Amino acid sequence: MTLEGSSPRGALLVGGTTSDAGKSLIVAGLCRLLSRNGIRVAPFKAQNMSNNSVVTVEQTDSGMIGGEIGRAQAMQAFACGLEPSVRFNPVLLKPGSDRRSQVVVRGRVDGEVGAADYHSRRAALASIVDAELASLRADFDVVICEGAGSVAEVNLRADDIANMGLARRAEIPVVIAADIDRGGVLAHLLGTVAALDAHDQRLVSGFLINKFRGDQSLLAPGVEWLDRMTARPTLGVLPFFDGVWLDAEDSLSTPVGATVGPASPGGGARRLGVAAIRLPRVSNTTDVEALACEPGVDVRWVDDPAAVAAADLVVVPGTKATVDDLAWLRGRGIDVALSDRAAHRKPVLAICGGYQMLCRRIDDRVESGAGVVEGLGLFDASVRFDEEKVVRNATGSAWGLPATGYEIHHGRITGAREQPWIHDDLLGDEGGHRDALWGTHWHGLLAGDAVRRTFLHHVAQFCAPDFAVAPDTDFDAVRRGQLDLMADTLQSHADIDALVALIDSGPPDNLPVVSISAR
Known about the structure:
This protein has 16 helices and 27 strands. The protein is an alpha/beta fold and 519 residues long.
């Protein structure tokens, strides 16, 4: 298959049988493949639910302002060679608890909702989503849309703005992805189609089976059966591999005990063990991925005091619920382990909400409504939550090196007496440092290669002086390699010609309706 000379125009929605079916990476791979072949392509996810977000910079009538979108859409934009934009993810839900989520519309906070009252807002949000998709389709040759969860959540179909509702309103073809590693993939695909009404089914144009292991000839009879039952082709069987791991879509699916990234060689005889605390409402888990790219650095998600005590470096990441997750830390005894590390000068890096937890006092009448809460007191500073959310990209320096990052938070540091370790070009001193403790509101700081290497040198002085920091790790090159791997996998294992034909021509005519009672 070659895309040379191809000039498709149109859109495609990659839906799923479940959450975490691989939609985000398939969209990224398609975007990368099309972009590499000179096709102007953009990603789109109408509604995302994730605490992994990225700051965008948007031009408005009042000037340049910061917005936020889901991390996966920023990764997909990178695959297209584009800067992240709120256009690619106009509605973002950021869960603060099991029942409430902050609503971000076109990059800006627009209240908070529960599951029930969110439905009353969807009609207005649908018009925003539809207008944004139409605008992208006018500006780009191809728009690759990502669905949300399962396309067959029939209890939510009436108000759907991200799956079949979006596809119906825009009249775009749908390809359904399923994760065979979960088991039951053929039933998932058949049942998903059959659960849709006849009008939705006419847009479902094919399937992609993801994470396959073993001999594909053993799957072939099942694929032929699925084709007979649905009259829709399986357009690809993508292999299972561990090579893609950056820019995780859903932080809440990150399991305790999981290793971030591949088992990296290098680092000499001494390896550096990093424990990232798996908070219940952890956000921006991608902050630790840059560390995991480093040879000889092993990063693992943990939730127990023993693992926190044993690590060379502990990362306390961001959270969407600072006060609630602080209570969780105390309930598990991790607060004691962190205090012990500070007393014995063992390295800790605290980012955003994690930084706030380590301060002496938190005044939160915004996020949790708890009022004044005692922090862990490891940093001599206080935190006050403001209604207005800080959403911005930041530039400056750390250890005299150029540094960049981004901020997404309600909390403001006040009365800080610690030594700052970052200079912010706009705000001046940023972050707090004492002995082996580092705290900052900046996400993404360690994506800078020189800053990350210098930080690891400082960490090693406290816990592993014989650890050899690699001199040449290129984080952006690793990210590009991940996207190229996904694009190459699709090119090798999917019918790209058929996918491009769907984009260009829309769903086939007269696709039959699949019945639940089909035999």
